[in-house]
User: Fold these one by one.
Assistant:
Number 1:
Amino acid sequence: MYSGVGSANIEDGITIDLSRLKEITPAADRRHVRVGAGNLWGEVYSRLESLDLALSGGSASGVGAGGLTLGGGLSTFSPRSGFVCDTVLNYEVVLASGAIVNANANSHSDLFRALKGGSNNFGVVTRFDYPTVEGSFHWGGTTIHSISHRSSFLDSAFIDFVTDPNYDPYSNLIHNYDWSANTSWLIINNIHYTNATPYPDAFDKFLEPPLLFNSSLRTAPVSSFADEVDRSDTSGKLNNPATLTVRPDSTTLNRFLDLNMAAAESLKAIQGLSWNVLFQPLSSSMLTNKGPNVLGIDASESPLVNLFVAAGIVPSADSDWQADFDTVREALKSIIAEATTEAKRLNVWHPFIYLPYAAAWQDPIESYGREDVAFLRRVSRRYDPRGVFQRLVPGGFKLW
Ligand SMILES: Cc1cc2nc3c(=O)[nH]c(=O)nc-3n(C[C@H](O)[C@H](O)[C@H](O)COP(=O)(O)OP(=O)(O)OC[C@H]3O[C@@H](n4cnc5c(N)ncnc54)[C@H](O)[C@@H]3O)c2cc1C
């Protein structure tokens, strides 16, 4: 959905539509679930809720299980169980040869690891087997604040949350700054606790600044939170994304926000423009729990913060939206370049580029580091010697 042109469909080519692969089969012992690759997270959550189960998946109900899981996957469960890909028990994959294999810890274990961050480079995954988590009611919701409280969050609450030595792994949040011509800048927190305990201490500082509107904090089924995040994303929007990883440092986070605010201000004449800046913790507990993935992050470097910007345009018949889209992309390139320079100067830069949030002009695979990239190339040559997924699937982030 943030993936670049040609990665999920293509003009004058073949699109493989997985949307009818709708299997969702919980195991008899309730401990894992088979999920067909055509499912959206909302469908998975709703099905599991009927058994009072949940799993580690995406925050928005309309996002597909496939792209998110294959690129890593940031979940409300991440502080408990790492990236979504870390939790996957088995991948059913159609290889370039047409053979169907199951990749797991005991069979095709090299492919199993390569798929944990290797994206669309190894085959078409038709099914993911995930572990389930007991209990489908969580506590959380959205709080909206005036931009005047920015310092309470970026200089204090957010940094304290990420760096808390007693980080509560049930707590997770996305700290957002949203701009549109109608609303100007707003601070939006998606607060989430992965059990039904209301108002856990972890969020105390986030609840201090006054609210602009009533919050939606509540105890509810997981699907209700995923629907809420989904509703906040304007449909029909073309997104220009970009991302960066840094250590928790308020100067750098503020600089990133300032650069985005300045860019939005200078481009505000663009019709249908919106600007969304997200700060997400990559907590120590999350990175310590990571499985045998290829993302190349060393747990000793944690905690980290994912910085993400999605600048959207709603195309209209009377606008030159393609030119506008290109203009915004160039602005994001400058923002990432300047923020990177600043983060390096402050010694808080981290090389990791999170693939599902990366722009087509970024190189997330290379960011995994030399060893993991060499491993991915070896596995690719073993399972796809003719490079079908390198050349015939031209979009996305390639290995060779
Ligand atoms: C509203 C919104 C909320 C989001 N929330 C989160 C979040 O909470 N956490 C997070 O980590 N990311 C999140 N994302 C980013 C999301 O992970 C990416 O957009 C991801 O690419 C979505 O996957 P998809 O299958 O829906 O997209 P697609 O565009 O269909 O696929 C993305 C890429 O994966 C490949 N791919 C997909 N399925 C398969 C398969 N079965 N086999 C082989 N290759 C496949 C495609 O070829 C393509 O290259 C969000 C995005 C949006 C728009």
Note: The pocket of flavin-adenine dinucleotide is lined by residues 1-3, 7-8, 18, 37, 58-60, 63-64, 66-68, 70-71, 73-74, 119-120, 124-125, 233, 356, 396 (CB under 6 Å).
Number 2:
Amino acid sequence: MPQLDGARVLIVGAGSGIGTAVAHATAEAGAHVIATSRRSETANHVAARIGRGAEAIRLDLSDETTIAEAAQRLGRVDHIVSVAADHANGPLSTLERRAINEAFTAKVVGPILLTKHFVPTMPTDGSIVLFSGYASVRPAPTLTVMATANGAVDALVPALATEVAPIRVVGISPGVVDSGSWDDTSDKETFFDNIRASNPARRVGTPDDIAAAVVFALTSRFLTATTLRIDGGQPVA
Ligand SMILES: NC(=O)c1ccc[n+]([C@@H]2O[C@H](COP(=O)([O-])OP(=O)(O)OC[C@H]3O[C@@H](n4cnc5c(N)ncnc54)[C@H](OP(=O)(O)O)[C@@H]3O)[C@@H](O)[C@H]2O)c1
């Protein structure tokens, strides 16, 4: 029997990279997928590509009204996966308060509000998967905001898991993944070569690697209050 047979899975940020891979992997595992984006067209496009009755809904984690409306419209949702990230990378001298706030909204404040609005109608065997990232344990110049936002996710996961128990809350912390979000990096191939040379897996991750870990998290009923590092064993120092 498919692992997620008939479960209603809301995927926040399904329109690109890892989120799209998660949408396809959960659908293949039998889930009824509800794909979100801040743009209706993007959500509709992803849902159409998935087929199998997948739904689309516009949802912006910086606008609590869209979260509350989605919760009311969708009714019971069994599992939530939020892959959303807004990037405020760069030297400190270039950082603007608005971008810093948006980064924390996508990763921390928004997921807290998602939990607030959806948990009341979630079943007790439901789960929530949030996305951290390697920057929280591997600080680097220009990644201060991402490191701190991911560190907040690492702390948020056990806090939420305690508060909404027995609903499970699991964090996923990817290493470097060729998700499309590195495509504008001028020295992407050199950077990827360095990752391949330095991690024990000797490869850069794929969105499907991370999606497989999400399906594992959604279906592992003794797994909660922790963050899984899916990073090819990338050295922390
Ligand atoms: N790729 C990597 O190497 C890597 C490494 C470590 C951690 N991660 C983490 O893994 C996750 C996915 O990575 P990715 O590379 O696939 O990211 P991505 O392509 O940048 O996708 C991020 C998604 O976040 C959504 N989003 C941004 N702000 C939002 C908001 N306010 N409300 C709702 N959705 C919002 C965007 O959706 P719309 O624009 O369609 O609304 C977009 O689809 C992220 O959390 C990222 O930090 C990735």
Note: The chain has one domain: 8-228.
